[in-house]
């Protein structure tokens, strides 16, 4: 057999190539150099970009690109320091609302502003490094916001701006429909305002437009016009008959009209009857159906206040009538009738109510005198009778005009002398100002609050200087408020005058005494001289001139002998002209 060939160590296949090895070494060196170059470049990029913000970075429009974190913090602190202290200004029309950063709970957060760029983290990703060198980003200024304070500040703007929608309605003065037209409201969009403030602060904080939305009424003017025709006018077409068993009574339009209104309920116009406003006219109209309840009250017997107990009655209940009357208001004829049951009616003011008022003693009293005149006896006596027995609960206000009413013949008054336009004239109710003056002084010395009073235009000598009051229907009134913790009962009466003796007007206030009141008076000042007036009309009443002046009245309040407070009331009297009931004399030069 031929011998198997063997590989010799001198076979060219395994022979080393010196040139090839040298090439490999060069390649390795080059590769190493490239690696080192890249590593160096990477290291340079890392060092160049670490702790740096991207080159085109802005925060709130402030350029902080390629700044270090420390430099960016310093730049932002400098640039934002002034605007961050400025208030945010929100404009609506001509009105500007200012929210200071403190009240709005706003503060700039520099660290958070920088952190959102990622600059405060180490950068090892080469693509991120390139992005830092070449990138461009805009960021808002980060804020530290007290949400509760910001919402509260915006809510205060809304409170000042919002206007509730005014729904239309129909009322019935003088038993005739009177329409109140609807008016749109407005409401601040508080959520949008909060967002707007957050986005604007601190660099765009001026002339922000307040977002306000209209609030439309639920019903339109056309709806109201239709309701007048379909509901309101038929409602006033006639009385409503109240049927209780075998008894009937008519409730006239004038009786239920003041209690009736057509108003928006659940988005629709609905007739509503107020039982409280209906109660008194209903009781009057249905007297024949039952027995009216009697309120407890206080009377003066043998010089002492005595509680007169209230009494229950039987009659028609206002709440039942108020509910049942609505469906029949649009009907006519015999269909305008409702059936009700009579029930026991308790008095509105019970015996316990009156006892709690603490009317136990005389609080104050005052008397004024007047010369004989039959009209004074009549008018003052009638006014005193209307005032007598008035009970003021704590916090209630007495009104002379509301209590006495218009001074007409039907109301029991006659013609008498009164002041009109600075002179005496004859008119219905002349002399009732003496009742007002006496009431004013009783209230003065009881320590009651003087709500409103008007001295006569000129001084009348029978009244206390500076402490008197005139009244005129309906514009000039006397009002005082019961500011004590107890009730006040007004007792008023007239001792009539005779041809040979003066009359007197008397007022006593009963309750629980709270104050010891003393009065003082300044000297008169600013004297005014009367002129002469000629009047040839049949209405003329002659009068002597009276000088005018100003004077101060002092009221001192004491408790347990100690002064608690003082008041000063100034009265200004015009001069009263010397009135002569004849034509003015002719000018001699012209005669």
Automatic annotation (TrEMBL):
Q: Which Pfam families does the record match to this protein?
A: PG_binding_4, VanW
User: InterPro entries this protein is in?
Assistant: Glycopeptide_resist_protein, Vancomycin_resist_VanW, YoaR-like_PG-bd
Q: Which residues does UniProt assign to the signal peptide? A: none
Task: Report the domain of life of the source organism.
Answer: Bacteria
Q: Does the keyword tRNA processing apply?
A: no
Ranges that cross the membrane: 26-45
Membrane recorded as keyword: yes
Tell me which UniProt keywords the record has, alphabetically: Membrane, Transmembrane, Transmembrane helix
Question: Which residues belong to any copy of the YoaR-like putative peptidoglycan binding domain?
Answer: 98-200, 266-332
PANTHER family for the chain: EXPORTED PROTEIN, EXPORTED PROTEIN-RELATED
User: What protein am I looking at?
Assistant: YoaR-like putative peptidoglycan binding domain-containing protein
